[in-house]
Fold this sequence. Notes:
75% of the residues lie in helices and 0% in strands. By secondary structure, it is mostly helical. The longest helix has 25 residues, at 2-26. This is Tetratricopeptide repeat protein. InterPro entries: TPR-like_helical_dom_sf.
Amino acid sequence: xxxxxxxxxxxxxxxxxxxxxxxxxxxxxxxxxxxxxxxxxxxxxxxxxxxxxxxxxxxxxxxxxxxxxxxxxxxxxxxxxxxxxxxxxxxxxxxxxxxxxxxxxxxxxxxxxxxxxxxxxxxxxxxxxxxxxxxxxxxxxxxxxxxxxxxxxxxxxxxxxxxxxxxxxxxxxxxxxxxxxxxxxxxxxxxxxxxxxxxxxxxxxxxxxxxxxxxxxxxxxxxxxxxxxxxxxxxxxxxxxxxxxxxxxxxxxxxxxxxxxxxxxxxxxxxxxxx
Length: 275
């Protein structure tokens, strides 16, 4: 029933607040950012929180067409509260562009990315990672006439489908980034979750090496996160890069290799779909 989903999401928010509270006591300089302060302040506004939950729930349950309007409203509410140039407002517009594409409005997504690119260049500068995100997706959607998002369940676990094949003890100074990614993902801040998970990947690669199985799993999960956060072009490039390393290190028939190949095909568009 629908009310059970709302209860579950409410409990998750409470759990996230508790977890991030613990992390703030242990590693405040690593976890607490201006982004997280803004999120915590927004949690105090019931109307805004409900609007965000509605938008996120619809998107993650593959009701993208119904998610467009609440995302538009969320952009307006956050712009009124924080200013149109606030990084989280720009990130919300980034999500809105992705939702338009997921809803099948490829032309609308391209227009949204084009408008956003000018504002991000002005506010963040040409070298900011978000600008690269917008550029590659603008080019991707400009080259399409139609697209249907793959009907996959949304991610429940940030370690991907091969996590059971990898056992490890995480370093405390590395694990904090994974926990922050989980908190942001559950709150509906997919763009911020990708940012935190990129840091986790860098830390794992530094401590374990680029060819370690855990590093490969992290790259796979990050590619999945990119796709579901709306960075389809970035995800496809990541899958392509990862596939060669998966075959070389794990073999062509490994579960992770097969998943990488299948994900890349699905986010490109199944054969026979309009493109």
